[in-house]
Design goal:
heterodimer; A: 807 residues; alpha/beta; Ubiquitin-like (UB roll); Rossmann fold; Dimethylsulfoxide Reductase, domain 2; 6-stranded mixed β-sheet; 25 helices; 19% strand; disordered N terminus; B: 484 residues; de novo design (two linked rop proteins); 4-stranded parallel β-sheet; 4-stranded mixed β-sheet
């Protein structure tokens, strides 16, 4: 945190603060300097992560820069040599008192019923710096209140003190300028534009930074009083960014998540998914008891000892006929134990990814980048994967700042324009199947278009990749209807142009990087012994072929998450035993034979490893419902029941074993992670060792449109589905195409069209998407109303045809 | 003649009375005002139009700038800062811009409107001279939203000037190229403040930027060096180019050479805009002399007058013999500002007059700074309550106290000989970014200092001591449209 760093100023700017001669840093903001030096100047509008505006006037202090003392807003001042600042002078005190009286005249003073009461900067500053009582006897300003400005946020304009924090955030940080000041003078108010709600993925941040109770979030409204809350710092585990959070509970229920400012990761900001997904932990239909099937095939509740014994039996079959799928939901400690347990049992078919990720060799075979490296001013970032706003929204905010404010140059190598495309310096929108070909054509001499990308853009990209400054490639899975090998091949081609590139993983699912680090990847710990492990897709294929008897699902729901739906169906139909360890009833647990309930996020202590390899704490704040227990305990018990004592009886012992046996964790102080806002990065040094897999992509067939299946932030995912405030936000399935395609079809947006594919046809509503190139049809994955997985088969790409619906 | 107003209605144009009044004396900027067709290119050329530009183009830019500096052309927008000195603040950074502040909206001021309506070519010529002297080739001419005729005439004149080669590429067959873009405001007083005007011109809400760091000369339009000049200031340049600094300085006083356009309104016999020599004529001469306003209406006694637009503290009988010159007026506790004089005779209610001016500022506050946004509307409510017969004795001190929260310290005010009170010199201090908020304090401190008895009389007549009436006053009013 730049604002509160305690490092002494070295090459400082001498200035006088309240009669004491001190030093500020070069170019340091006066408010930041005073914070650092332990002198508090009250403020409302200033926020260290946004441009100062000097609106609220609360930070007026007497400043003398050689022309006599004058009241100046501290937030707008850079400390200059020999500046004399007095934050306690008579004029300063009078000004602070005056500003507070004025701020309060139209404020409703409804603190007893206000969610902010008790943690309100206006309340605190009024007590510390304000007049004891008001002299205002006139009618106060009235507005209808509260008004919903989005699905998640309510606005009370009477409480608002017009500090410009929420509006600045929406414009500057999120890039969604959907709220603004309207009217002027005393009638100035924050509002949305008619018919344009504040539907930003980041709207919850405005609630957190509101210095009064004007903005409240639906999930927290009237749920608790601040003095009843207890909190602990943790990490958002809903995606792989690993944003730092504080989680707060009241009466053993998680009620609120706040962003914590980590310089290295999220700068205090969160996506609404990270902020509000805690509702799922508290959902009523959590799995609470171990279940097994009775003779009639019905689930019966079992005690843990019985259920563990039954599950252990399933795990003791021939190791090559057992597969373990999943593990990204688990904390690092449980991942470690599952890796140990499968090693002990000789199970080599294990894969934390669900066929929607990338070959883990991409992460182990390329130099790894941190977010800070990607955001280094003057550097270049290549997007080779999905839209970060949809999959890794907190990372998106960092990247957006980097390209919008810090001059980081962006190259898009994506199937459609990303949410950062307006900042992109080169736009390589490769048709599905063409990414590798396009990447290989990047050259300053490019003279012909390749894969739908102009030669000019290819040359521009080559120039940017050859420029000074670090090159970072954000690699993810852009298209679930396309083989991941194409992404790997494209990365190798990029490496040919920019040999010094580093990779920032864009794998999105929770603690996936921890799982890979701990060894939940196909193969054995000792290395190839003939029985090389199978990937998730290979396991499912083997199960369908009768070669696997038991599938263990570690917080995985292949029925929904593996892109190839037909493959999953046939695997589940053929496999003898499915053991599911999960927090919720999912499509996959419904088909399981043994279900073990696990503790959810917020219920267990543990460790998270983000997409950089950065470790941060996961903290328990509430107790698990029913008999649900921590994953590491489940793993340890299963180990005992299968005759493989792992020798761990507490989380501390697990961690000791990890530090001892996992080389990349040597020396890690797990207990110190909570107090380290940035956290250590593990497994940093990796040399380039990738080679391009060969993929042959068939030419576009008579169907005419190549399918793009990708994710949106709000989908029918298990967690979102179980968070009441978020569930209704799930995207509805439509097939979108470039406007030109609509014209050719002669249909309007919203019309039904028939989508024909290899296995049949389906009717869907059509939408226009100007971000799509011609020749591509896009359907969101896990959207409400249609399962795009039914379109995805084993081929490298999927071709479809659209027709006007017959009726 | 008809024109479109800002809200899209078509109205027959009614000239804002009063208009220009011809008088004896040297004419620098109003020389064509007496012609019916003064706004046409034909009339302009027939009366020496664009001769100044021609003269300027014959010199080097530095020589033109020096001429302006030598002539001590004071800014006519309000602050009275020498234009030549201001120009010198521009760092050697390109692109750089000239922005013409035609958002004249200070209460009582209507001189720039006449300059734009009656002689748009003179203004365009002045812009061209300034651009040439500053070595820039992009000028933005910002016209106030409520001035449709000015906008229309400048638009026509610009088209004529472009066609005739006085503006655009290769001006008058030289290698000088300068573009002028006309921009019509949306109607906000605050946009007359230069940094708010720049925000508005960029397409944002018209709200001021803090100086420092946003001094326009260093970080102005699009954060590039920008000179913002008033319409009248630029209208002086053609005459100056033709006649030279020496001739210019033969008019007016030594510190304030040249002439000024003064807009007189209120209770005088002949209100209107007069071009007078700066620093020479006194207020008494202006109000009473037959060459100017010809006395107070109905030969009533003068009660008070505002010497420089609504923002200026009030003057009284005691100040009548001060010559109209920025420094003198400032030392006497007010400002000459934009040259707007509002005269009020003995029939005027001081409390009502104060409310009228305060209400203007409350309505026009942009809402950015807390003290102005909340303070001006509070002042308005208290004054209105006193007038409604619900005043309380403590309201007088409360009004002054609210004022010190917007403008700390002692507010500038004129001397009051009878009471033995000295003047407090201009300008006021401020807790706000721009002077709008502090401006609302001027009428209050002026009125209370001089006419406290009138406030007290109204409060004494209040039946209920105020508070009861406030509680029972009205049902809560939903002030604005609700959500959607």
């Amino acid at each position: 945190m730049t604002a509160t760093e305690n490092a002494p100023a070295t090459t400082g700017v001498p200035f006088t603060l309240n009669g004491v001669e001190l030093e500020a840093k070069q170019g340091e903001n006066l408010l930041d300097a005073c914070d650092r030096l332990g002198v508090h100047i009250p403020r409302f509008c200033y926020h260290p992560r946004m441009t100062p505006v000097g609106m609220c006037r609360m930070c007026l202090v007497e400043i003398d820069t050689g022309r006599g003392p004058a009241l100046q807003p501290g937030c707008m001042m850079t400390v200059s040599p020999n500046m004399v600042v007095n934050t306690e002078s008579e004029a300063t005190v009078k000004a602070q008192d005056g500003v507070l009286e004025l701020l309060l005249i139209n404020h409703p003073l409804d603190c007893p019923v206000c969610d902010k009461g008790g943690e309100c900067p206006l309340q605190d500053n009024a007590f510390a710096y304000g007049p004891g009582e008001s002299r205002f006897v006139e009618e106060k300003r009235h507005y209808e209140k509260p008004i919903p400005i989005s699905d998640l946020v309510f606005l009370d304009r009477e409480r608002c003190i017009l500090c410009d924090r929420c509006t600045r955030f929406a414009d500057e940080v999120a890039g969604d300028p959907l709220i603004h000041f309207v009217d002027r003078g005393a009638q100035t108010q924050v509002n949305t534009f008619p018919d344009h709600p504040f539907s930003s993925y980041f709207s919850g941040n405005t609630v957190q930074i509101c210095p009064v109770g004007a903005l409240t979030a639906k999930p927290y409204r009237f749920k608790a009083r601040p003095w009843d809350l207890t909190g602990v710092e943790s990490t958002a585990a809903v995606d792989a960014t690993g944003a730092r959070v504080a989680i707060q509970s009241s009466q053993n229920r998680l009620v609120r998540v706040l962003g914590v400012d980590s310089d290295a990761v999220n700068w205090g900001w969160l996506s609404d998914k990270e902020r509000f997904i805690h509702e799922a932990t508290d959902a009523e239909d959590r799995l609470t008891d171990p279940l097994t099937r009775d003779d009639a095939g019905e689930f019966v509740v079992r005690r843990w000892t019985d259920a563990t014994k039954i599950a252990a039996e399933a795990l003791q079959g021939p190791a090559e006929r057992i597969g373990v799928i999943g593990g990204a939901r688990l904390p690092l400690e449980a991942q470690f134990l599952w890796a140990r347990l499968t090693d002990e049992l000789g199970i080599t078919s294990r894969d934390a990814q669900l066929g929607d990720g990338l070959d883990p060799a991409i992460l182990s075979g390329a130099p790894r980048a941190t977010i800070d490296r990607a955001c280094t001013p003057g550097g270049t970032v290549v997007l080779l994967g999905a839209d970060p706003k949809e999959e890794l929204p907190s990372l998106f905010l960092r990247l957006r700042h980097a390209v919008a404010e810090d001059g980081v140059k962006l190259i898009e190598l994506t199937p459609r324009a990303s949410s950062l495309s307006s900042y992109a310096k080169a736009r390589l929108y490769a048709a599905p199947g063409a990414a590798a070909e396009v990447a290989a054509a990047i050259s300053t001499d490019a003279s012909a278009s390749v894969g739908g990308v102009d030669a000019q853009e290819l040359a521009k990209a080559a120039e940017l990749l050859g420029a000074d400054g670090p090159v970072t490639v954000l690699v993810g899975r852009a298209n679930l209807a396309e083989t991941a090998d194409l992404t790997a091949a494209a990365l190798v081609a990029l490496h040919d142009v920019a040999p010094d590139l580093a990779v920032l993983s864009g794998l999105r699912r929770g603690n996936i990087h921890g799982a890979i680090e701990m060894g939940l990847v196909p193969g054995s710990a000792e290395g190839g012994d003939g029985a090389a492990g199978k990937s998730t897709e290979a396991m499912l294929a083997a199960a369908a072929a009768g070669e696997i008897d038991t599938l263990v699902l570690l917080g995985a729901d292949p029925m929904a998450d593996v892109p190839n739906r037909e493959l999953v169906e046939s695997a589940f139909a053929a496999v003898a035993t499915v053991v599911s360890i999960d927090t919720f009833n999912t499509a996959s647990t419904a088909r399981a034979d043994i279900v073990l309930p696990a503790a959810a996020w917020g219920e267990v202590d543990g460790t998270f490893c983000n997409l950089e390899g950065r470790l941060s704490p996961l903290s328990a704040k509430v107790t698990s419902p029913g008999q649900a227990r921590a994953d590491w305990i489940i793993a340890a018990e299963l180990a005992l029941a299968t005759g493989h004592d792992l020798g761990v009886g507490s989380l501390g012992e697990v961690r000791s074993a990890m530090v001892e046996t996992v080389p990349s964790l040597a020396g890690v102080d797990f207990d110190g992670l909570v107090s380290d806002a940035d956290g250590p990065v593990i497994g940093g040094d990796r040399a380039w060792s990738l080679s391009a897999p060969s993929v042959s992509v068939p030419p576009v067939d008579g169907y005419g449109l190549r399918l793009l299946v990708d994710r949106t932030l709000w989908d029918e995912g298990t967690m979102v589905h179980h968070a009441p405030s978020l569930a209704h936000l799930a995207t509805t399935a439509t097939v979108s195409v470039a406007p030109a395609v609509l014209d050719r079809l002669g249909v309007q947006p919203g019309d039904q069209v028939t989508l024909n594919h290899e296995n049949g046809s389906v009717d869907l509503a059509v939408a226009a998407d100007g971000r799509l190139p011609d020749g591509v049809a896009r359907i969101p994955f896990r959207a409400a109303g249609f399962d795009a997985g039914t379109l995805i088969g084993e081929g490298p790409v999927v071709d479809v045809r659209l027709d006007r619906a017959s009726s | 003649m008809s024109s479109h107003t800002n809200d899209g209605h078509t109205n027959d144009y009614v000239p804002h009375a009063p208009g220009y009044v011809d008088n004896e004396g040297p004419k620098v900027v109003t020389s064509r005002f007496t012609y019916e067709d003064s706004f046409t290119l034909e009339r302009s050329l027939a009366t020496g139009g664009y001769d100044g530009l021609k003269a300027a183009l014959a010199k080097s830019p530095a020589e033109v700038a020096q001429e302006v500096k030598d002539a001590v052309v004071l800014g006519r927008g309000g602050a009275g800062f020498p234009a030549g000195v201001k120009w010198g603040f521009m760092p050697q950074i390109w692109p750089r811009y000239l922005v013409v502040n035609g958002d004249e909206s200070e209460p009582g001021t209507y001189k720039d409107r006449l300059l734009m309506e009656r002689d748009p070519h003179q203004l365009i010529e002045g812009c061209m001279i300034a651009c040439y002297a500053l070595g820039l080739n992009q000028c933005f001419l910002y016209v106030r939203g409520e001035m449709p005729l000015a906008h229309e005439r400048i638009a026509t004149a610009l088209n004529e000037a472009y066609a005739a080669g006085y503006v655009g590429k290769n001006v008058m067959d030289t290698d000088v190229s300068i573009d002028i873009v006309l921009h019509w405001g949306a109607g906000a007083y605050i946009v007359g403040e230069e940094t708010a005007l720049i925000e508005s011109l960029e397409g944002n809400r018209g709200q001021p930027r803090l100086k420092p760091p946003y001094f326009p000369a260093a970080k102005g339009l699009y954060y590039q060096p920008t000179i913002v000049n008033n319409v009248e200031t630029l209208a002086n340049l053609p005459w100056l180019m033709v006649n030279g600094a020496e001739a210019y300085k033969t008019m007016g006083s030594e510190a304030s050479p040249g002439t000024r356009m003064l807009a007189v309104s209120g209770h005088v016999k002949r209100p209107g805009v007069y071009e007078v020599e700066q620093g020479v004529v006194t207020f008494r001469e202006l109000f009473y002399d037959d060459n100017y306003c010809g006395g107070i209406r109905d030969d009533n006694d003068l009660k008070m007058f505002i010497p420089g637009g609504g923002s200026a503290p009030w003057f009284f009988e005691d100040q009548l013999d001060i010559p109209m010159e920025g420094r003198t007026v400032g030392a006497a506790g007010s400002m000459l500002g934009s040259g707007a004089l509002v005269v009020m005779d003995e029939t005027t209610d001081a409390v009502k007059a104060a409310l009228r001016v305060v209400r203007f500022f409350a309505r026009e506050s942009c809402g950015k700074c807390t003290p102005c946004r909340e303070g001006t509307s509070w002042e308005e409510k208290v004054l209105q309550r006193i007038l409604d017969g619900h005043g309380r004795p403590e309201d007088i001190d409360l009004l002054l106290e609210i004022g010190t929260n917007i403008s700390p310290g002692t507010y500038p005010v004129a001397s009051f000989g009878d009471a033995g009170l000295d003047a407090v010199p201009f300008p006021p201090k401020q807790t706000t970014i721009c002077p709008l908020g502090p401006s609302s304090v001027a009428p209050i401190t002026s009125a209370i200092r001089r006419f406290r008895d009138e406030f007290e009389a109204k409060i004494d007549a209040s039946a209920d001591g105020g508070v009861a009436a406030v509680d029972a006053e009205s049902e809560p009013v939903v002030a604005a449209a609700g959500g959607h």
